[in-house]
Amino acid sequence: MSIHQSRSAGTNSLVAVVAMTVVTSIHHVYRLGLEVLIPALVLIALPVLLLRWQRRSGTRLALWAYAGLSLSIFSWFAFLDGFLDHVIKALGLQNTTFLPGGDAETVPTVFHLWSTQAGDLFYEGTGILTFALGLLAMGLTAAFVRAALSPGVQQELQR
Description:
Layout: H1 3-32, H2 37-57, H3 60-90, H4 116-148, H5 151-158
Helix pairs in contact: 1-2, 1-3, 1-4, 2-3, 3-4
């Protein structure tokens, strides 16, 4: 594997991780309000900064920091919230919720769309989309880590 292929795998991973984070940010701002906007923007910027650090330094610490953050975002937002709450609910099973009022038929949100049904669809849809993007992000991040740790890339970095 070449360093070019590793960089391409890193870019693919970053696009998926940022997409997952943007969707979950929209989901949570819609539910909780603008006070979560600053933490959301920080969470969107962190993977970009960590991948940039990894590309400049080529260190395993930077690689594992990026992969660890990506896994943390997936675990908390895509799996615990997206899957256990929204996907499970869409399948008609008993969902696991973490926010007060989340077990209500219509989840209370700060923002509203033109109808309750549209708002519910948007809210549940962004939760499900977060999980789907999270699965993609984890697959692409695993491919990136595998590429970055391949012997060919490691030899090129040592030159």
